[in-house]
Amino acid sequence: MNPRSRAEAAYLGLALGDALGATVEFMTPREIAHQYAQQSGVHREIIGGGWLKLRPGHVTDDTGMALALGESILANDGRVEPLACAQAFDAWMRSKPIDIGNTVRRNLLLFRRSGCAEAPPSEYDAGNGAAMRVLPVALATFGCPEAEVIAACRVQAHVTHHNAMSDAACEFLALTVQDFLRGESLQQVFRQRIQPLVDAHPAFAFRQRARRENPGGWVVETMQAVLQALVDVDGFENCLVDVVNRGGDADTTGAIAGMLAGALHGLPALPPRWLKALDPAVRAACAGQARALIG
Ligand code: MG
Ligand code: MG
């Protein structure tokens, strides 16, 4: 499997996880088990609905912001420029998206007033809103020195989230996606990325903890749930089903798990029935951007 097809699987995985998880966003695992009692208590089909009353196969801000960011990178010859990122997110907000995070909205409104494409540092801006949209940066900087990858991650993240834990998650996700694109195994990635992340930021520790159910929008809870599912559950479909059935910010845990598991397992692992259910325009945009960004 070549990096291009893994990149496409990562981008489609992001959209599939978003579409699957949105149905059960903000629910508890108990509520999900009750609602899907006739499906053995497990939500595992792309059917829309949820608190957003999403049409089947449609996606939310996670995929929407990633696509806006990817377009701006492509329009800038593959460069991740602060002002271009901020303008792309602002244009996306003006398009009246179906959902938008509080931190994203607040700091984009600040950008409109100040023209400054970097939000002020804030210990409170540790939501998952920058991490969920980092994939286009990982693809555009594939093959670049690690320092450049990290710098580009921070440029895109700091438009709305200027926070050390958010940065740690964004950088981890971009570098891990790139490892998987190169064909590295989960065991290798565990040693060279996951363990060092937990060593540097013990808040992300997830192995010794109980299963992280109902993960909220705090990037630490999001990453704990995603890493538990990625490490403990085999295969693309089962990994995404596991993480979204924990409820909480399920579209975002689904999206992030989808990009990682997509890059790890590749296109053949994506369930055909999910791809068929995905909005054709979203599917084409994700696949097209993945190929264009990786060059
Ligand atoms: Mg969302
Ligand atoms: Mg969400």
Characterise this structure:
With 295 residues, the protein is mainly α. It has one domain (3-294): ADP-ribosylation/Crystallin J1 (ADP-ribosylglycohydrolase fold, Orthogonal Bundle), CATH 1.10.4080.10. It is 61% helix and 0% strand. It has helices at residues 3-22, 29-35, 61-75, 82-94, 102-114, 135-140, 146-158, 164-181, 186-200, 219-232, 236-244, 250-265, 272-277, 280-294. Helix 8 (164-181) packs antiparallel against helix 9 (186-200). Bound molecules: magnesium ion (2 copies). The site of one magnesium ion has 6 residues, from helix 3 and helix 12. One magnesium ion (MG) binds at residues 25, 249, 251-252.
What binds here, in terms of ligands, is: magnesium ion
What is the overall number of helices? 14
CATH 4th-level superfamily: ADP-ribosylation/Crystallin J1
Quaternary assembly: single chain
Task: Decide which structural class fits the backbone.
Answer: mainly alpha
Which sequence of SSEs, written as H and E, runs from N to C?
A: HHHHHHHHHHHHHH
Describe the largest sheet: none
Number of strands: 0
Please, what is the average pLDDT?
97
CATH architecture: Orthogonal Bundle
Helix content: 55-70%
The outline comes out as globular
Distance from N terminus to C terminus (CA atoms, Å) equals 16 Å
CATH class: Mainly Alpha
